[in-house]
Amino acid sequence: MTSKKFSVIGMLILSLAAGCNQSETKQEAEAAYQSVRSQFLSQEGYSFWGVTKLLSGNSANGSAVTFNGQVQGEDVFLDVKLSFPEENRADTLSLLSKSGRLYAKLDGDQAWQKVDDGDVTMWQEMNNWNPITSFEQIEEMRSSVVPLRDPNPGDDIKAVRVLLDSGKLKQSLARQMKSQIGGGVKSLYVPNLKMAMNLSDEEWREVKQGARVQANETRREIDNLIDNMELEAECTLYYDQVTYLPTRMVMQIRSEYDLDGQRMQEYTEVDTFIRNYGQRYRLPQPSDSPDTPARSRSLSKPDENRSDSIINYPGR
User: Fold this and answer.
1) What are the structural domains of the chain?
2) Of 302, 316, 233, which is closest to residue 67 (Cα–Cα)?
3) pTM value surpassing 0.90
């Protein structure tokens, strides 16, 4: 009888110890995330590049979007390449955020063109792939930070996973969609909806200027679509445990929604690499560009990123 009591007490002690260790591990993961975020946002110069993979139904696109850019201070340069395998083509949009203004370079343009202040679409595309915005979105929508097992204890790369709140994800998507209808769109360019890529090319946003009743109906349809949508996302942050600077961000997004009478299932992975911290970049100077607001046509193609060869090596 005494041995049974000791056995039960021993199990309770082990259980309590495991609970404490788990709690401490989560606290360590939270602290690591905060340190990585703080260190990253304090950086003045670095480069980044990445690829977005899309799996939907029976179709898959391993490079639906590829992007690369540089950050210098508060200014950001970005090239975005959009792949359309069914049409055997790829379009590219170049964006430059400088001194709080946004400029675009389109196919055939020799100079940067200032984006109209009321054009939300270009800003949305910039925010999709800009790692600064990604960190801001993660902080705004995170629900918890969980530790990850280190598959290679011998190196300096560690990782944590940030789980995002489904309700906040849906609110963000709804805001982005609603900003593209009615008077919100003053450009012919259609930005990607990162949280539900297949909705990017749909005709739901096509409302005639001044058609207030139709715009309100479209907003109600968006609300209904979002209400019946399943949406979840998480982001794995790889970082150098010595400097606490992120080396890679992998955002995984799973969505399920009704579209054209069918239930769509979609999986998107945005894989971003960040390197060359501390390097100074000479970003393009748009000062000599015409002040005509940019309007989208076909888009130019950037130089290939020489660093793409390391994309398959996590955290490096």
Assistant:
1) 2-310 (2.50.20.20)
2) 302
3) no
